[in-house]
Amino acid sequence: MRPPLPEEVFTQAFGEGEGELVSLTYPKPLPMRLDRWLVSQRSEQSRARIQKFIDAGFVRVNGKTGKAKTPLRQGDEVQLWMPPPEPLPYLKPEPMDLDVLFEDEHLIVINKPAGLTVHPAPGNKDGTLVNGLLHHCPDLPGISGKLRPGIVHRLDKDTTGCIVIAKSQEALVKLQVQIQKRIASREYLAVVHGVPQGDSGTIVGAIGRHPADRKKYAVVSGESGRYACTHWSLQERLGDYSLLRFKLDTGRTHQIRVHCAHMNHPVVGDPTYSRCRKLPIELPGQALHAFQLGLDHPITRERMLFEAPLPAVMQKLLAVLRRRVGGDTPPPAFG
Length: 335
Known about the structure:
By secondary structure, this protein is of the alpha+beta class. The model is unreliable at 1-16 (pLDDT under 50). The longest helix is centred in the C-terminal third of the chain and has 13 residues, at 312-324. Strands 7, 8, 9, 10, 11, 14, 15, 16 and 17 form a 9-stranded mixed beta sheet that branches. It contains 7 helices and 17 strands. The protein is globular, with a radius of gyration of 21 Å.
């Protein structure tokens, strides 16, 4: 199937057909090249992919097809059409034991274990959550129908906990809107190094590609990153460590991990953003768990709240740290 032509895709409303139509307004008083600004706004896309969108005519500025060097001026309206990835021949169903927290004909909520990548990528073509979901849900290939069928949001490979997947196109679009408009709530627990000052706080810092290491993300200037906001509260002091609870206003790649490192309290076991290699116990990755997910059912509109218990390795980590501080402190109640 050929990709849609620009004149076709710009006649479609959001959520109709395949792909994503993003509308943006250039806010800065000084001009900036179209390609550079789009890269800063869509940091999950590579510069080369943004360039391909522009070259294919999938970007318009004030209703006219844009070019990479098109200068943006304050108030300019930019539309970016992102067609879905092409089908991949290696995207195969695989039997997998899934910890299902909830399922109906419209959505499924999974408690994801550590070590499980959400969707295929170069060098990681099988054994992903998508492969398992394709086996579990026979109709899933028709939802977006490409590389990430049904995926509404994602969790990093070694982050555990709640993740929701759409089982119908209508559910996918409506759940994506809930994520974008913060109707859906996502709360996390993490063990971090050190003890932050105060009992709660908010981290506001634009996140973009690390200037020296393109495989990492970092807090960067507003011009080269995307706005990100993380609220945290201290749940338990554990000597040289702390148990923190997080609530996200945004959902940037590696957001909690980057923001924790930025405030000099990296997540314990984080192989990318923490330099500490001597840990209280052996961990499979960062001690970060998506313990609670709230959303409106995309069809019935009923408010739903899902919770995933702490994985055994994180419970063991907390037990070891509590013993070290010489207390039998009961685990804090969440919810």
